Amino acid sequence: MREEAGCEPADVGIQEGTDRHPEGFKLKKLIATLGYAGYSPVAPGTAGTAVTAFAYALINMAGVRLGSAAWLVLIGATLIIGVYVSNAMEDHWGKDPGPVVIDEALGYLVTVAWLPQSLFLALAAFFLFRLLDIVKPPPARRCENLRGGWGIMADDLVAGVYGNLILRLLYAVV
Fold first, then answer.
1. What are the percentages of helix, strand and coil residues in the chain, rounded to 5?
2. Residue 4 · residue 75 · CB < 8 Å
3. With b meaning 16 or more CB within 10 Å and e meaning fewer, what string describes 35-57?
4. 60 closest CA partner among 3, 126, 10, 15
5. 90-125 pLDDT per residue, tens
6. For each successive 10 residues of the chain (174 residues), what is the average pLDDT?
7. Is 134 exposed, middle or buried (0-12, 13-18, 19+ CB in 10 A)?
């Protein structure tokens, strides 16, 4: 088996479906890495955010408008699934593994949720969320100390809330 970027050395030579890789591992890895975007050799978090922003832009260009219930389901499902698959990947790769970028999807979705959908918003939210995810305003950094998948997901959730509030403020002022 070849080495994959972002994997711990212990991952080399382990076969899918063995005791070290229970059933469903490949699907969990696919989801956690957002279709393997997390394996980007440069800035995997940015790559994961870009995948989500691109999907959001496609939905926007198709004319699909998400209502309140749809946003709640989308964010809730991303959070629950994200915690689950992040736990599995953390058990395999160690604390907050780089290839896991489903947390970026959650943060980006929270950043754009319930705002007027547009391509401009998609781009502005991309840069704003990335900045906030890197800076980690309080209490985002402390959230990383939560156990397992919760620690992986919570800091991006907080960054997304900050991003959403900042964009709302900008919409109100401009």
1. 65, 0, 35
2. no
3. ebbbbbeeebbbbbbbbbbeebb
4. 126
5. 999 999 999 999 999 999 999 999 999 999 999 999
6. 36 43 88 98 97 97 96 98 97 93 98 96 97 97 95 98 98 92
7. exposed
Give burial (CB, 10 Å; 0-12/13-18/19+) of 32: buried
What is the Cα–Cα distance from 21 to 166, expressed in whole angstroms? 42
Of residues 159, 101, 114, 152, the one with CA closest to residue 133: 159
Whether pTM > 0.85 for this model: the answer is yes
Look up residue 139 and give its amino acid: P
Centroid of chain to Cα 51: 10
Please provide the size of the chain in residues.
174
Residue 148, token pair as written in the block: 């397992």
Backbone angles phi and psi of 102, in degrees to 5: -65, -25
Contact call for residues 162 and 137 (beta carbons, < 8 A) = yes
Q: Which two tokens stand for residue 94?
A: 């160690």
